[in-house]
Amino acid sequence: MQLDSINATFKLKNGIDIPVLGLGTYKAHGDELISAILDALKIGYRSIDTASFYENEEEVGEAIKASDIERKDIFLTTKVWNDEQGYDETLKAFDRSMGRLEVDYIDMYLIHWPVAGKFKETWRALESLYEQGVVRAIGVCNFLEHQLKDLMSTANVPPMVDQIEHHPELVQPALREFLKENHIQQEAWSPIMRGRVMEIPQIVEIAKKYHKTPAQVVLRWDIQNGVVTIPKSVHRNRIKENSEIFDFELTEAEMKMIDDLDKGKRTGPDPKSFDF
Q1: 251: phi > 0 → left, psi -120 to 50 → alpha, else beta; which?
Q2: Under CATH, which number does the domain 9-259 receive?
Q3: Among 22, 95, 164, 169, which has the minimal tally of Cβ within 10 Å of its Cβ?
């Protein structure tokens, strides 16, 4: 596995390549977001993550059109929100997302949260979209092991990705192992704990050794663990800094040290008890 370039990718179960580093866009809007995406694409990012819930698909689509990067070279992800779930509802939601993004296919379409009683029908819609070829890969977000097992018990196409909250204080090693065993690519949201990794002494020490920032150390930890990471920023210097993780490598001892910081501590909702 070569992790020495921003062009590095992991291969999904169906053979599609997904960039190991992407740009998250949650809570980013307007011209600020368009500029951030254009900056990221110039720096070398080729993966953009959005969702219908973010209410910024129009800006994402506008930025992609305004860039000089060909559409085929950009890995675009969006997601179906909770109140859009169900078979027919998901197909309609997908059409709305396509219209807002102004594209004719999506690289990856994800179920945003495991809505009980709905996610199996939602998945059936994703399978239909995948079979039609308008989506290159399908997956889920925020699914725990028992929810994945339930989904996979009736799925014709197993999920290719699980995008979950993942950072040094929420490692979820059992879930990580389950994903690896089932060839489901793990993807990390909130990888730098909304900036709080800067306050963890062990990570600060590792960062000093490599002349890197704590955020860069954690993003490197992600990709060395085989985890796709999608840090969010609208600031060019931070977007560039987040991409500068391919010129150093953490030792096994350092990887374990970060793993051992796990506290089972979430910054976001718990997939077992969310109520939205």
Answers
A1: beta
A2: 3.20.20.100
A3: 95
Phi, psi of 140, rounded to the nearest 5 degrees: -135, 170
Among 185, 84, 191, which residue's Cα sits nearest to residue 143? 185
Indicate left, alpha or beta for 207 from its phi (over 0: left) and psi (-120 to 50: alpha): alpha
Q: Would the annotation count 112 as a binding residue?
A: yes
Q: Given this model, what pLDDT does residue 221 score?
A: 98
Helix 214-224 with 236-243: angle, nearest 10 deg: 40
Structure-block tokens of residue 212 = 């890197």
- Below-70 pLDDT ranges, the chain: 1
DSSP state of 248: -
How far is Cα of residue 144 from the mean position of the Cα atoms in its chain?
A: 16
Q: Distance between CA 93 and CA 78 in Å, rounded?
A: 11
Give me the pLDDT at residue 2, please: 87
pTM over 0.90: yes
In angstroms, rounded to a whole number, what is the distance separating the alpha carbons of residues 176 and 183? 11
Task: Name the burial class of residue 208, with classes exposed (0-12), middle (13-18) and buried (19+) by CB atoms within 10 angstroms of its CB.
Answer: exposed
> What sign does the dihedral 138-144-149-154 (CA atoms) show?
negative
Amino acid sitting at position 42: K
Which residue reads 């992609």 in tokens?
Answer: 64
Cα dihedral 27, 243, 135, 151, rounded to 10, equals -70
Whether 41 contacts 67, CB under 8 Å: yes
Identify the sign of the CA torsion 84, 167, 229, 35: positive
Bridging pattern class, strands 106-111 and 9-11: unpaired
Query: Exposed, middle or buried: residue 199 (CB in 10 Å: 0-12, 13-18, 19+)?
Result: exposed
Q: State whether residue 255 is helix, strand or coil.
A: helix
The whole-number pLDDT of residue 168 equals: 98
